[in-house]
Amino acid sequence: MQYKHIHKAIFLERPNRFIAHVMLDGKNETVHVKNTGRCKELLVQNATVYLEESDNPARKTKYDLIAVEKVVTDERTASQKTILINMDSQAPNKVAAEWIRENKTYFPKLTLLKPEFTLEDSRFDFYAEYEDNTACLHKSLIEVKGCTLEKDGVALFPDAPTLRGLKHVRELTALSKSGEYECMVLIIVQMKGCKYFTPNRETHPDFADALKEAKGTGVKIIAVECDVTPESLVADKEIEVRV
């Protein structure tokens, strides 16, 4: 996915979940934050951030904060490097749709892809139908999670307790057991270079347990890292999943 009209700025503070104050071209600017999560480890004072300028003149804020640079330290060498993390919470589903359409390993011949699919009283990010090499039709439910938390080179989700995420994983586990649907939790890691993905047990142990149970019942747990630039977020390759 691509962004337009990108500007580089310096993060100052975040008075609430929805807005931040940044220094842009020497001026204090109030911007919309496209992620209502905590993101405390990302939005630190004086961090370099990237904004997308809106072309909607009716908006209260002219810019959206979509990405941030994070300085990380290699524990073995004590050297530091900067990684760019996309923190736009709307981006993972767009990237996931592109990945699903292009992926021939899990979806050899995709015939249908529906976003926001409702099944009884549950709603999943995607419903897909595909044919395998024998022309057998498969039905698939995919739930997407965006991952912006990195610690010691490991991608972690969630960064805060997520009852919604827990509900989704448990629902997919039950549906997988029924045998009618193939089920997948697709983790879009909104950065590049993590060694592996694992659920954040310290923050939400129930979610970690549920993800482990889901994998045991046949739910595919897939983590895909992304190439990130200020102007784009593109799925690259799978990384190891440890549950």
Short structural description:
The chain has 3 helices and 15 strands. It has helices at residues 91-102, 163-178, 205-216, and strands spanning 6-13, 19-24, 27-33, 48-53, 63-73, 80-86, 109-119, 122-131, 137-147, 149-151, 154-157, 182-189, 196-199, 220-229, 232-241. The radius of gyration is 19 Å and the shape is globular.
Short descriptors:
243 residues; alpha/beta; 9-stranded mixed sheet; 5-stranded mixed barrel; 3 helices; 15 strands; 16% helix; globular
Describe this structure in words.
The protein has helices at residues 91-102, 163-178, 205-216, and strands at 6-13, 19-24, 27-33, 48-53, 63-73, 80-86, 109-119, 122-131, 137-147, 149-151, 154-157, 182-189, 196-199, 220-229, 232-241. The protein contains three helices and 15 strands. Strand 14 and strand 15 form a beta hairpin. The chain is globular and about 60 Å long. Helix 2 (163-178) packs parallel to helix 3 (205-216). The protein is of the alpha/beta class.
